[in-house]
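Weekly modeling sync, notes
Attendees: S.R. (lead), two postdocs, one rotation student

Agenda item 3: backlog of single-chain predictions. S.R. asked that every request posted to the team notebook include the full sequence so nobody has to chase files. The rotation student volunteered to paste the first one in as an example of the format we agreed on. Action items at the bottom.

Example entry:
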Amino acid sequence: MTQNKKVWNANKLKIWQSMIALIMLFLASVSAKSAVTDKLNKVGEGTMSWMFINIYKASLFTFDGAYQVNDFPQALSITYLKNISKKRLIEATKDQWLLQGYELAQVKPWLNLLSKIWPDIKSGDNLTFYLETSSKAIFYYNQKPIGEVSDADLVSAFIAIWLSDKTSQPALRQQLLGESK
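Predicted structure, as returned to the notebook:
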């Protein structure tokens, strides 16, 4: 086989791998409405980007498709578009809580709990936070339950990362709430 043919075959393989990765990503985003959220209606969705890099696609679901703070059930479904280690996910969550005004002493126990629940994230993985009530929520990883939270303050603080007026991503908040595209 000539060198040109080898290069062409290698490029052809890379193209096929890229196409398969895009298809898998599309299927992951389509399946964001899964068994966890199939009885709920989408309120809105948006993509979190940082410096022109798409990090994840998030969707908010409620029973009637309209968001009310204390109306349950609710679900925040996040499909990741890049790999993120559990350590980095915990650190980002801590940063968001501190930004919103929570004290480090208050968030440390929450972070310890989340570090026992969350896995490392790969591109295409889905993490869903399903709020049954104001004090009970379940984390799902790729549509399988991985941990329960029974702390009203933690439940409220976690969803506030995206839905609070103090969020670091106000445009994403508006998209999730169906207020803008």
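Discussion: group reviewed the output briefly. The beta strands are 41-50, 53-62, 74-80, 126-133, 136-141, 144-149.
Action items: rotation student to repeat for the remaining queue; S.R. to check formatting next week.
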